[in-house]
Design a protein that fits this description.
65% helix, mainly alpha
Length: 168
Amino acid sequence: MTDRASTLIDARRERIERILGRDLKAPRPAGGAPLSQEAREYLVEEAQNLYWNDLEWEHITDEEALEQGAIAQLAFPGFLAYIRGLLLHEVMPDSQAPASPRPQVVADVLGFLAKRVVELEDGLATAPKDEVAQAREELALTSQLVDLVLYEFHGVGPQDVERIEAAG
């Protein structure tokens, strides 16, 4: 991860901690055998594919467009469901597979999103005029997505999310 991307994630975490008045806890990985590098890369690649697919669908349909812009929760439903699945700690009693949280994969995905934010910020200065609006929208959505993934990663509940969002 680049320095700017790491700084972005660290600053967002610090902001959340400051608003909530407590340290955020990192989730624990699943017990048992750790993921192979190949499996980890595959899971990250799947998250990236979901990001690009959800983003492209939003560009095609403008389905979630509001006056103030699109809302990441609505524009990236598949991506966010995948992130929640990677962090799942409990399953139904009749589940045929145990919960197997993979927070290390979510950390890698956060790195991807932060790099994307940095790329978009840098690209705004040189983007052709007819692409600036779309680049700004993608930047806003991806920036929101970083926050949403951080909330999921650290188990920030809905009431705390409201407090964070209200703090601006």
